[in-house]
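FIELD: query
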Amino acid sequence: MECAYYRESLCRSCTSIETPYPAQLAAKQADARRLLAVSHTFAGTLVT
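FIELD: result
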């Protein structure tokens, strides 16, 4: 992805912008799987 703000060092909020998109998707899928795998631990628990 090309972003003029990032290129000009005006914004650094996109932590994955230099990571190839397929790798971004794989990491996000792994995170989602990890979170879903432990979500049963919190089922019925009020988290504040």
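FIELD: remark
The longest helix spans residues 21-42.
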